[in-house]
Design brief:
This protein has 383 residues and is an alpha/beta fold. It has 13 helices and twelve strands. A six-stranded mixed sheet has the order 1-12-2-3-4-5. Strands 6-7-8-9-11-10 form a six-stranded mixed sheet, with helices on one face. Helix 1 packs across helix 3.
């Protein structure tokens, strides 16, 4: 999910959140490690020492893989193992610690209760398996949206966000996503940022441009950068995307033949991007406008400008429970469709994900929007 961009009123909340998150992760690891140490007391010292080293190396592996992502001497295979193993460990530890805490409490209240760490581990593994299956099967969300401006005919738009290509989303999952999109036969494909994950290196090594080249939409494939395009290096991402039919544009307006304007906004990671007021002033307000902006930020303000449709992502809807409650609190709209007084808003949960290949309490999505405007003769008659 990367960095959040919250409501204007929540900077202090965000600071507290990002301070607490690593502390809770550390506390969960310590809690489970202490239980594991007691459970292995009959083993010899060498075996327990090896288990200790493996435990803490796994706990730190995700952060090491991210920190070393541009290290030329680190083999991609090892980097991938560190990333995937470490990201899965985070979810495993969180759920194992929570379940163990519940079981420990139950055992104190009911002395005959016999469940222990082994049972908590089994439940966590089962949840991870279900979460992986859930991740592998994103949902298709059909939406019919009618706007009060003239456009020629209806338009079918496939909207995706947060593919996070790299160690997390590889060739197999990307092929699955491409097939799902092409099966819908969209007129236009829009990607609301974070196509790349943390580095372009594994994306190039896996030759993921081959899958992206299979995407097809007669009116084009456009995307805006997300914060992870900047984390990965914008210019490097641009070079890679140049091998595909995708056009990554920032603070650019594209006029489509049917009268629709695409407003492809730069990500907030670029502090030099245009203000939304300046950007929208360059558009023709009498024509249908679709704003693609990675972060669903200041939706009420964009609604007041008169933007017809906004498409965003970034939040992943928390990806793993209870993260969905956190994103619901931090954003005006953390996922799904909503009609404001004027604007139609769609916030994708992401077709893929960041970090662990697991979704619990959330669902990946591909939105298929059928956009309809007023007939030109009807629009003239209404004037």
């Amino acid at each position: 999910m990367g960095n959040f961009a919250p409501r204007n009123t929540l900077p202090f909340t965000m600071i507290i959140f990002f301070l607490l998150l690593p502390l809770l992760y550390l506390a969960g690891n310590i809690y489970i490690y202490c239980k594991l140490w007691r459970a292995t007391k009959r083993l010899n010292t060498i075996t327990r020492t090896i288990l200790t080293l493996l435990f803490w190396a796994t706990a730190a592996s995700l952060f090491l893989s991210i920190g070393l992502r541009d290290n030329e001497e680190l083999p991609q295979a090892l980097s991938r193992i560190m990333f995937r193993g470490g990201s899965l460990w985070i979810v495993f530890i969180i759920f194992t610690a929570l379940i163990s805490l519940v079981l420990d409490t139950a055992r104190r209240l009911f002395p005959t209760f016999r469940c222990n760490l082994a049972h908590a581990t089994a439940i966590s593994v089962a949840l991870l398996c279900y979460g992986h299956y859930n991740y592998r099967n994103p949902q298709i969300v059909p939406l019919g949206i009618e706007i009060d401006k003239p456009m020629e005919g209806n338009m079918k738009i496939a909207v995706v966000s947060d593919l996070h290509l790299g160690h997390g989303t590889g060739k197999g999952m990307l092929q699955r996503i491409v097939e799902l999109i092409n099966k819908q036969k969209p007129d236009l494909i829009l990607i609301a940022g974070d196509l790349i994950d943390n580095s372009v290196k594994p994306v190039i090594a896996a030759e993921l441009h081959e899958e992206l080249q299979q995407l097809h939409a007669p009116m084009g494939i456009y995307m805006t950068p997300g914060n992870h395009e900047y984390i990965s290096g914008y210019e490097e991402c641009l070079k890679f995307i140049g091998k595909t039919p995708i056009k990554m544009l920032r603070d650019t307006i594209v006029a489509l033949p049917n009268g629709v304007q695409l407003l492809l906004r730069d990500d907030a990671a670029n502090r030099g991007r245009m203000s939304i007021e300046e950007f929208y002033s360059k558009a023709d307000s009498t024509r249908p406008t679709i704003l693609v902006d990675h972060i669903p930020y200041d939706l009420a303000g964009k609604n007041s400008l008169g933007i017809d449709l906004q498409l965003s992502g970034h939040t992943h809807h928390g990806q793993v429970w209870p993260g969905n409650y956190i994103t619901d609190y931090l954003y005006e709209q953390s996922h799904g469709y909503r009609k404001w007084s004027h604007s139609h808003i769609w916030v994708s949960s992401g077709v893929s994900l960041w970090g662990p290949p697991v979704r619990l309490g959330t669902k990946g999505d591909i939105a298929i929007i059928t956009l309809k405007g007023q007939d030109k003769q009807e629009a003239r008659g209404a004037e």
